[in-house]
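Lab notebook page, bench 4
Experiment: in silico fold of construct C2
Operator: M.H.
Input chain length: 477 residues
Purpose: comparison with the prior construct
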Amino acid sequence: MSSLRSASSTSSCWGRQAMSFLWCGASIQQTKLKKNSTTPETTIGSQSASRSVAILRVSIGGRARPPREHTASSGIGDDRVCCQGSGASFVPPSPSPCPAGSSALTVPANPLTMDTVQRKQPSEFAAEIIHGSARALVSASVERMFAKDPSLPVRWGSGAFQKWVSELHARVDQLISAARLHRPAVFVANTDWARRAYAARNVEEKDLALGLMCLGEVLEEELPAPAADALRPYFKGALAHFGTPLEDEPSPLDRCGEHTDLAVRYLTRLLEGKREVASGLILDAVASGVPVDRIYLQVLGPVQDELGRLWLAGEVHVGEEHYCTASTMHVMSQLYPVIAAAPKRDGRTVLAASVEGNAHEIGIRMVSDFFELAGWRSIYLGTSIPADDLVQTMIDFEVDVVCLSAMLTVHLDVVGDTINAVRAEPRTADIPVIVGGKAFMLDPDIWKDLGADGSERHPVDTVDLAEKLVTAGRPKV
């Protein structure tokens, strides 16, 4: 297997092999991956495990690159997975599934050109290829899973194949995001999150490990060598964690300090469905002199994080979490008159929003409220704001700084695109952009690669950073 020896050799080797992956090139061939004829056919719903799946095959000089051998040391393609186990019925939430067995390849909206191929890093190039042919790659990977473990349709029940198509699509989306940022650790962290969700629901993680190995095998066989080589650390790191104990996560309520009792009582009342009682607890505390910022930082914020932990642990379902979250949003609205009464000063305006696709808003709304408590005018836009509309709003309200929130790592690409849109508009190009949210907690330096001007975890620190950026001016790039 070829390796990347130097920047110059990478560009040359990568460029030659990439030629066959240009979407407008005539050398791309669609071939069919077929299950070994000696493997018994297994019926999966209306689909057959021996079904052919169209997949991209790299053609160099008119010849398809032969599949490479897989070894245990590579972290990809190790077949030594025990596939016997108990029944399972849970798949963590995933993006909308594609039709099982679909052979249609999705051509990227912006076709790759030789210039963009040569300018991209191997992992970025791999991400673009995977993004453009995700359906076929996922279908081929699930085909391989079911060929290796015929017990899967029995243990996973009706719709087993489609469940795994959805599950591997989620893993592929996370792989694409991590690869575009050149960060295997992000993919490993996302995989550990999935392992934790499986364990909480008494689903053995070996099926997930098998799915990742099959996905890794398919990518090894179908991608150009430099792109496949670049992805190997992602799979090796993720698979290395399987079989290791998952550490217990501490409760976020442990950081509530002097208001731990209030936080516990508030969450308990919410889970009992007593929103009015829960709301009364918070309003009474504020009326008795507890500052709103303390309520946010030591009660409402930790309670939201605890709800996330409880959901991941399988102790609350989505309906309960949504009810509690909506109730907290209601409480924040009740507290807004106190926030609005804070002394204001002229000349400082912040725009706060969740990027397009991010439906989580409590965190960024708290940030917005902290700016108002500090005397700023806050233009809070809420969730899932398209980049073009965000830029226009920046112009309309003449903002001084922008705060963007991303909850999941799959939102990081959108953050980068949004920042690019801000920089592309002359009237907003010099406005500082601060980013935050759980997606940035996996790596403290991700914000730099996305072109942001800073990132903070704490709302108070975010306001302080904004003050410094506005006072000093955004550094010229």
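Observations: DSSP finds 18 helices and eleven strands in the chain. Residues 248-341 form a domain with the Methyltransferase, Methionine Synthase (B12-binding Domains); Chain A, domain 1 fold (CATH 1.10.1240.10).
Next step: discuss at group meeting.
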